[in-house]
Amino acid sequence: MNYNVDDKGYYGEFGGAFIPEMLYPNVENLRQQYLKIMAEPSFKEEFDQLLKDYVGRPSPLYFAKRLSQEYNTKIYLKREDLNHTGAHKVNNTIGQILMAKRLGKSRIIAETGAGQHGVATATVCALMGMECIVYMGEIDIARQAPNVARMKMLGAEVRPALSGSKTLKDATNEAIRDWINNPVDTHYIIGSAIGPHPYPDMVTRFQSVISEEIKWQLKEKEGKENPDYVIACVGGGSNAAGTYYHFLHEEEVGIIAVEAAGKGVDSGESAATSVLGKMGIIHGCKTLLMQTADGQITEPYSISAGLDYPGVGPMHAHLYKTGRAEFIPVTDDQAMQAGMVLSKLEGIIPAIESSHAFAVLDTKKFKPEDVVVINLSGRGDKDLNTYIEYFKL
Question: Mean pLDDT for the chain?
Fold first, then answer.
């Protein structure tokens, strides 16, 4: 079984490029160029240098002693929250801004939900002196105010998406509209492992630095490269794709994907795509998608702005369909409590997206000798208001 993308841009039956005619030249040019550009020694050198000196990689693999005692298993945290900008998103935006420069683009657009990808995009645009427009749902602008301020400080223009649920899906729609209107000078930095081929594969490759580091870091700490389990939260799924990448074909490694169940899988207010989704097309790719009987996209819900998405990246849809990954839905309440447990036991306040991954420790039993790696994909300062309201702090 192959879990990587094939020559036609598919993961099994998921993927492809379903795009308006106007975007075909852009996407096709990217498809023809991305692997060649990524293989160029000068690209690799610049990418690695920026990850080291600007982002602060490698991010630590931290043995969480008190958390491990609490759950009677060996828990390591991949500290993506310590990256510059506070999340994994910057790994991908560094790669894509270098790609855009080599493709001769001068204007950057992006979509964002939790704001972390928007901040990471605004950051690299400031670094490279490029124009930056970030689309963000009106509701997300309200609930992620600190990140909106950061984007503006970095010189980006934040444009609200006022249609639909006014969240991530709608921000993505607006960004695609912009790209159709400005196809020549604009590169669209997609923030997740979603979109038309080659985006899911390109984003995954840029994020695969996460699993690449886990392997050598674990070898140093445990004398073996492969953990028993890798766990990550999945919305569109870029942090998860990066966490799983080097373990996809290592059958002894259990892959756990954690989805946002919102107020409950059957509550009508959820974003648990694997359980609730069926095959459909969203934002340029064929994947699992929450939809009504007549194919209209269902509005997702999660307390976490970054997981509030009705679809999932095609690689994850394939991992679900083949059974390679175990998908576990986690409710708002379970995630919020797990975030508080990590804060109190380890002195680390996680992003609410990442808190979903930690909630698995309460729903799945691990053996004392298991080595469990959890991707701590982002830090919680952007979510302090949500924590304050939820816990009445």
Answer: 96
